[in-house]
Amino acid sequence: MPRFEGKYIPKIPRFGTTIFAVMSRLAGQHGAINLSQGFPDFPVSNELIDRVNHYMKKGCNQYAPMQGIPELRRAIADKVESIYGVRYNPEEEINITAGATQALYTVISCAVHPGDEVILFTPVYDSYAPAVEINGGISIDIPLKRPDYSIDWDAVRKKVGPRTRMIIINTPHNPTGSTLSQEDMEQLDDITRGTDILVLSDEVYEHIIFDGKVHQSILRYSGLIQRSFVVFSFGKTFHVTGWKMGYCLAPANLMKEFRQVHQFMVYACNTPIQYAFADFLKQKENYEGIGDFYQKKRDLFLKLIKNSRFRFKPASGSYFQLLEYGDITREKDTQFAERLTKEYGVASIPVSVFYPRPVDFKVLRFCFAKTEETLEKAAAILSNI
Ligand SMILES: Cc1ncc(COP(=O)(O)O)c(C=O)c1O
């Protein structure tokens, strides 16, 4: 293929290929157990697959409405109301998206203007900063406080100013497995009250929270709801990350702006899958036990590596567990993650990649959304290092 010989100025040169693609490829090349990227390796509900099949055969195969099919938006409104006690209007305040990733990108694109500042907490999920910068915004990174990865609200107060357009939060948190508390949400409310600051809340792991904790959604805080876009993922909740389906909630005036961009970004999302989710969401048992389901996996994984040389604090949410390896080697996390994949056959994600500048805390992230068999095999290897 002839190369393009014209002038091309990269838009976001500081970001390489996403680490998830890099580590999953490396895992594949070396036949390693892949605990790097966040996706389950167990089967999807047959009932859900049957529903998709049913709607495909029924002829629901053409473009859905731009905002999503009404049945699904209504089912979401009902679910949200039953859990969080707040009613979003399906017509004006809910939009179906091609995964949470698209929702996040669309929110940032519709809200962030060149020169706007967006506050992010590091280590940070890797799609936010590129989306901010593609849109001409400036990421303002605030490190989470170690070892519990909590938000330093005094630091936030110091960084907030007239150019702050948005604060992005994520609870339960990827990559650290930490969760925000009621006090955190009250601090956020206090800092943003009376300002033009918008909040983007990534809650894709809303149901994956452990040890009796309550998910502190934006949707529990009326003061925050009015300024927030809240993003969810069916992929994470129903173990179907490959279907790339999610949704965004926002008050009508913000949702209007969201749809301005959404219509030209994807226009509409997969039709038969939307019908299937509309049915599936109506049965609470399809999502209510997910926290317990994953807590068992976390507990099994941690029990099996208890006598290893890795050190850890159990994750309080998400399906990620951080392991510190400082007692094993002085290698950088990127080097150790690579060696762990190639020599030992277990792939993970080095946490330093979730920071904008090099850090060296000697921490790796492992995904435990896996079968018992996968976790047992991986734990046996990790325990012998
Ligand atoms: C915090 C966070 N937000 C968003 C996403 C993307 O979700 P989706 O697959 O629905 O695009 C992920 C996926 O790993 C995630 O961990």
Structural write-up:
It is a single chain. The protein is an alpha/beta fold and 385 residues long. The termini are far apart. It has helices spanning 19-29, 46-58, 70-84, 99-111, 128-134, 153-159, 182-192, 222-225, 234-237, 252-265, 271-281, 290-304, 333-344, 372-383, and strands at 33-34, 94-97, 117-122, 138-143, 164-170, 198-202, 228-233, 246-249, 320-324, 346-347, 349-350, 363-367. Helices cover 39% and strands 14% of the residues. The protein has a seven-stranded mixed sheet, with helices on both faces. The protein has two domains: 19-44 and 288-383, Aspartate Aminotransferase, domain 1, CATH 3.90.1150.10; 46-286, Type I PLP-dependent aspartate aminotransferase-like (Major domain) (Aspartate Aminotransferase, domain 2, 3-Layer(aba) Sandwich), CATH 3.40.640.10. The structure holds pyridoxal-5'-phosphate (PLP).
Features:
385 residues; alpha/beta; Aspartate Aminotransferase, domain 1; three-stranded antiparallel sheet
Q: Specify the overall morphology.
A: globular
Name the CATH superfamily classification of the largest domain: Type I PLP-dependent aspartate aminotransferase-like (Major domain)
CATH class of the largest domain: Alpha Beta
Q: Average pLDDT across residues?
A: 96
Rg value: 21 Å
Q: Which bin fits the share of residues in helices? A: 25-40%
**Ions, cofactors and other bound molecules:** pyridoxal-5'-phosphate
What's the total number of strands?
A: 12
Q: Tell me the β content.
A: 5-15%
Structural class: alpha/beta
For this structure, the CATH topology of the largest domain is: Aspartate Aminotransferase, domain 2
Order of helices and strands: HEHHEHEHEHEHEHEHEHHHEHEEEH
Distance between the termini: 46 Å
Number of helices in the DSSP assignment = 14
Uncertain stretches of 5 or more adjacent residues: none
Strands ordered across the widest β-sheet: 2-8-7-6-5-3-4
